[in-house]
Amino acid sequence: MISGTYSLLVNGNSYQVVDGHPSESLLWVLRERLELSGSKNACEEGECGSCTVLVDGEIVCSCLVLAASAVGREITTIEGLGSEDEISDVQKAFVDAGAVQCGFCTPGLLVAIDQLLNTDPDPDDLTVREAISGNLCRCTGYGRILEAVRIASKNRKVQNQEEQGK
């Protein structure tokens, strides 16, 4: 295939990629073709985590995934965590903890942490550090990021208790 048209399911929406080339990375297609610029382009080697997205619920570095290989799979980006009206609980926790500084690593960290809390609602610090080990942050020293995870975890517990009490 030199070029072609295919569909990608991103954040619950179907997008047509027209004249796609087989060598285009998922990151490039998300940012340049679909104008979903939340995932950041930094190392292009899968080392920094700034391009982290979910593909079928699995964390991947979108710079290392060929976009055409994601056809028929469910892709979730940072834009899919919240809604147009409200940021997600993890995004709010990052703001509350002051875990956002330059913001370049933030989208990848948010996707990874949201996925972690979906699978482990009460992780200890070691579990969090392991879950975000593929996401490099040069500004925060990770202390505020860990605090944000604690806040989000606590808030989810409270929300779950409230929902169960209704």
Protein model, in words:
- The protein is α+β, with helices and mostly antiparallel strands and 166 residues long.
- The chain has 5 helices and 5 strands; from the N terminus they run ββαβββαααα.
- The chain is globular, with a radius of gyration of 16 Å.
- The N and C termini lie far apart (55 Å).
- The model has no long low-confidence stretch (mean pLDDT 94).
Series of secondary-structure elements, N-terminal to C-terminal: EEHEEEHHHH
Work out the helix count: 5
Uncertain parts: none
Question: For the largest beta sheet, what order do the strands appear in spatially?
Answer: 2-1-5-3-4
Biggest beta-sheet profile? 5 strands, mixed
Overall radius of gyration: 16 Å
Q: How would you describe the shape? A: globular
Structural class call reads alpha+beta
> Whole-Å distance between the termini?
55 Å
Estimate what percentage of residues fall within beta strands: 15-25%
Total E-strand runs: 5
Task: Classify the helix fraction into a percent range.
Answer: 25-40%
Mean pLDDT: 94
